[in-house]
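agent> fetching stored inputs for the glutamine docking request
agent> found them:
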Amino acid sequence: MKTPVPDYLASVLARCDANDGGALADYIPELAHADPNKLALALSTIDGEIYSAGDDQYEFSIQSMSKPFAYALALQHHGIEKVLEKVGVEPSGEAFNQISLDSHSNTPKNPMINSGAITTHSLIPAETGELRAEKLRAFLSEMAGRELSFDEEVYQSELKTAYRNLSIGYMLRTVGVLESDPVDIVEGYIRQCAIKVTVKDLARIASVFANGGIDPHTGKCMLDRMVVRQVLSVMISCGMYDAAGDWLTTVGIPAKSGVAGGILGVLPGQVGVAVFSPKLDEHGNSVRGIEIMERLSQDMGLHLMEGTPSAQTIVQGIYYLDEQKQIRVYELRGVLQFTETEMLLRTIQQEPDAPHSIVLDLSHITLIHDVGRRMLLEGIDRLIDDAHEVLVVDPDGLFKAETTDLGHEVKHYANIQAIPH
Ligand code: GLN
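agent> prediction call returned; pasting tokens
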């Protein structure tokens, strides 16, 4: 059996192929020469499986899809509070290149419009615009799993006509949001926009975000969970500029578009997606890209507001390890967030008070959130108070707790066979 997913993606592309609406971006001269017929789609699961269709090897410039990643680097380096002093998180309801500031704070409204993005570019920790763009290129390359490069033609072409972004830069320098030469910063920002990617690269990068900042291919933690959360929140509210509300209701995937024709989407805990088609609507978003994302969202239920309940399946099985029925094993699967841990503790609550051992088998747990850990530790203390012994099977060392809050030792085992009985 071959999975039908690639055929399904190809059929989504075929259905959108006839849509000829929109126009090529013309304010970056080089983009006006793009082939308007190019069409590509890629999807990556959070365990790193990538499906793609259409012109999936075709490289195009990342443009504004670089903005969430520059924001992520700034947040990771300076912390959320510091970055908030420079750039807000409110949807602007304005065009992406509006020359505007928030009237109260005198700072850019959000990091997805150009004024905010030029500011977050300046917060990437490196000395010059060129080095900051390079830092972002290296970061994206690591997540894409290959060395990305810059499109020098697109870069030079945008530089020549960068009047608007330069005026935004000067405005930001005037009010003190930018603290060094605005020309160097705007040039660095334009260079970051010229990083070349394919839809497969983007889907793979997006899957790191969908996976809470952990790269599914390497297991490496690329970003803190809180940073990922912050970036995705801003993507859902501001990523599609003045079409953000329409996007949230019809597609419901935190996303970011770029004027070369790409759209990147991250559905937390589920998938990373990327589409490409160069013709744009009046907001600067890919026309066919939007249609494809709408179909994916509708056909595959990929909408943020269609949360999938997982609490009911957290306890996969309950059994005795020994013939004397003294060791009861709770076999768990999935993630331990609030609702799953609540369900688990409610199930364990029904344990009779007899002094027997309770084993929590975490072998198939993929993630333990902070709240899950705290609730579990509290539950362990209460079980011990009821004269139970509690053992934890945790081959991947996810639980990361040696003692409970009351100082009880948490007994860890690498596998279920290691428990003496
Ligand atoms: N480089 C473009 C700009 O700054 C990116 C805009 C976009 O993709 N929306 O104007």
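agent> quick read of the result: The radius of gyration is 25 Å.
agent> awaiting further instructions
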